[in-house]
Specification:
Elements: H1 2-19, H2 25-28, H3 31-46, E1 66-68, E2 73-74, E3 77-78, E4 82-85, E5 93-95, E6 100-107, E7 114-119, E8 124-131, E9 133-134, H4 136-149, E10 154-156, E11 164-165, E12 170-173, E13 184-191, E14 197-198, E15 214-222, E16 228-229, E17 236-243, E18 246-249, E19 256-269, E20 283-288, E21 291-297, E22 300-301, H5 309-312, H6 315-321, E23 326-327, E24 339-342, E25 348-350, E26 355-363, E27 369-378, H7 385-390, E28 397-399, E29 405-408, E30 412-416, E31 425-427, E32 429-432, E33 442-445, E34 451-460, E35 472-477, E36 483-486, E37 489-490, E38 495-501, E39 503-509, E40 515-518, E41 535-541, E42 547-554, E43 557-558, E44 562-564, E45 569-573, E46 582-591, E47 596-604
Parallel strand pairs: 18-27, 19-27
Antiparallel strand pairs: 1-4, 2-3, 4-13, 5-12, 6-7, 6-10, 6-11, 7-8, 8-13, 9-12, 13-14, 14-22, 15-17, 15-19, 16-19, 17-18, 19-23, 19-25, 20-21, 20-26, 21-24, 26-27, 28-31, 29-30, 30-34, 32-33, 33-39, 34-38, 35-36, 35-39, 37-38, 40-41, 41-45, 42-43, 42-46, 44-45, 46-47
Length: 605
């Protein structure tokens, strides 16, 4: 009975946090249903979950210094754990935080690299990522599975009891694998039932933090055609100054005058006592006077909702400057379950000519907080209403956020699923004829400052007949001028791919095979004595479509080459299976367009 009661509270809390901003009495059907659901909600709030402190021990034997904390703002996602820096070193022992069993092991050149998932009897799962290596029997078991599958990349789900662990047992070594930007341990705690990521700092880990968050800048937004802020269109950035947990507008000349519906945002970061990095903040509240208008708390985040970060922040500002401004108002398609209070979706109406007092309160998970006090003078009308009307330009085409959309042109087709955007967008595009080595027109869709939530389908028609469609790939130009390759298929009339980014697209032909060369033996290819070498290392790369597959054999038998794309490096570590004598290495590398290189090398041990 107790288990059912707790589960009911957790379910209600999760459900209401996801949907309270869109629920209405009409959706409940009748008042009786509304009261029942309200009772569940109040019960869930009264019994808000407490996370066990002291149950989990530190997974690493060094003082915690965080280079990233839970909920920290990252491109297209919230950070799902904490990053414990290892001060530029690899090889620290990684230990199971509590007893349990290894329920998942995943190895990938990307993402979490080498990762272990441990399920515990208390309903939580811990995750240890970017490992350099696994330890003991775990390493032996994983290597055996890789040889059976003949693949470095692998995902395994051991049965309960197959790989049991005790608290403090070494399960791996810290590293820098996958998409890691430097040596560290990425550590997570998840709800085993829902797979939601939970803030590990709620579990009592030893992090010294008496430092309050630092608010750096205030942002004010016009949220309607008739809104007005300080006589300028677009976002208004206002620097803040202060200290000792109290901040205000730095320059009195930046005092805010506004009319109509406006919204606020804030740039802020947090620090620890012994770490200098700028980490994310845990909670933000916005008050008008004593009235709470907005608040969010980053306790737990479902992975499927993480991309909604693109409407949690000012996406355009981040793309332009790299700065993260956290918005205190909600867009139409914002399903994040992190909001505690949102009045009128965070939109503030100012039209009474009075002086309004506002306060931001920014907190970290340990309760340290800073406040920002500022005032806004409301106008009774928009002094630039006529100017705004005269500057209005006709819309090209509106794409609705809550419905599917289709754009069909002679050169391309662009289709979107429902809820692909966070708001309705005024969609603009253009095409230009093929030039240079392009085999299609260039298709420009919007710009990189408009976010996409769900993958949209783009089909581009080639400029001329294509003899071998397998050699054609769609690309998108990135902000740094490099090309992002899109997985492409031929439909018979066009080349089709999916994208979560707007920008400039076109088709290219790729007929160049990948390049392969020795890395830890001489580049001229004359060295044959490998008797003193611990490993064989090869550099691989591709000029366009990217490495898709590789297969290494010695004397015709598959051997395990580990791939580190950050270094374009393949590494085979010798083991007892390669005996003394002469051997032949063969490596076959293919790119996404099927171009293939075969590298061979005879050597002696």
């Amino acid at each position: 009975m107790n288990a059912l009661f707790v589960y009911g509270k957790e379910f209600a809390n999760s459900y209401f946090k996801r949907h309270i901003s869109t629920l209405s009495l009409a959706k409940f059907g009748d008042m009786r249903s509304c009261l029942i659901l309200l009772f569940i909600l109040l019960n869930s709030i009264a019994g808000a979950q407490e996370y066990p402190k002291g149950y989990f021990k530190s997974p690493i034997d060094i003082t915690w210094r965080l280079s990233g904390n839970f909920g920290e703002l990252r491109p297209n996602h919230f950070h799902a754990g904490v990053d414990i820096t290892t001060q530029g070193k690899e090889g620290y022992a990684i230990r199971a935080a509590a007893e349990g069993y290894i329920s998942r092991i995943k190895i990938s050149p990307w993402g979490y690299g080498k990762a272990i998932y441990v399920t515990h009897p208390n309903g939580y799962t811990t995750v240890y990522a970017h490992l350099r290596a696994y330890s003991g029997k775990i390493a032996e078991w994983v290597k055996k599975q890789q040889y059976l599958a003949e693949s470095f990349e692998i995902e395994l789900f051991p049965a309960e009891g197959e790989l049991s662990v005790t608290q403090g047992m070494q399960i791996g070594e810290s590293g820098n694998t996958g998409s890691s930007g430097g040596p560290h341990l990425h550590f997570e705690i998840r709800d085993s039932k829902t797979e939601e990521a939970i803030n590990p700092l709620l579990f009592g880990f030893p992090v010294g933090d008496t430092v309050a968050p630092v608010p750096a800048m205030l942002a004010v937004y016009e949220l309607s055609d008739n809104s007005y802020v300080n006589g300028k269109s677009g976002m208004k950035k206002i620097p803040l100054s202060g200290g000792n947990k109290k901040y205000s507008i730095a320059n009195k000349a930046d005092s805010v005058v506004a009319f109509g519906e406006i919204g606020f945002g804030i740039e802020a970061y947090d620090k620890e006592n012994i770490a200098q990095g700028k980490n994310g903040v845990y909670s933000i509240q916005l008050f008008e006077g004593k009235k709470l208008l907005y608040s969010h708390t980053l306790d737990r985040i479902p992975f499927e909702d993480s991309r909604y970060i693109n409407c949690f922040i000012d996406y355009q500002e981040h793309e332009k400057t790299g700065k993260y401004f956290q918005l205190s108002y909600l867009g139409s398609n914002n399903r994040l379950p992190v909001y505690d209070t949102v009045v009128n979706r965070g939109r503030v109406l100012l039209n009474d000519g009075k002086l309004h007092s506002f306060r931001y309160v920014v907190k970290d998970v340990f309760g340290n907080s800073s406040s920002i006090d500022f005032k806004v003078r409301a106008r009774t009308s928009n002094p630039e209403a006529q100017l705004a009307a005269s500057a209005y330009k006709p819309m090209i085409q509106v794409l609705t956020w809550n419905q599917s959309n289709l754009i069909e042109e002679n050169e391309f087709t662009f289709s979107t699923p429902a809820e692909a955007f966070y708001e309705n967008i005024v969609f603009k595009w253009k095409t230009t004829p093929a030039t240079g080595n392009k085999v299609s027109p260039t298709v420009v869709l919007m710009d990189r400052f408009t976010p996409i939530h769900k993958a949209c389908t783009l089909a581009i028609k080639p400029s001329a007949s294509i003899n071998d469609p397998s050699k054609i790939v769609m690309v998108r130009e990135k902000a740094d001028g490099k090309l992002a390759v899109i997985s492409t298929k031929w439909t018979g009339t066009a080349f089709e791919g999916e994208t979560k980014d707007f920008g400039t697209f076109y088709l290219l032909r790729d007929t160049v095979a990948p390049n392969v060369r020795g890395s830890n033996f001489d580049v001229k290819g004359t060295q044959t004595d490998f008797s003193n070498m611990k490993s064989i290392q090869l550099k691989i790369g591709d000029n366009l479509s990217g490495i898709k597959t590789y297969r290494g054999t010695i004397d015709g038998k598959w051997v395990l080459f580990e791939y580190e794309p950050k270094k374009d490096l393949l590494t085979y570590t010798f083991d007892s299976s390669i005996t003394k004598g002469k051997h032949k290495l063969e490596l076959i590398v293919s790119d996404a367009c099927g171009n293939q290189t075969v590298f061979t090398k005879e050597f002696e041990r």
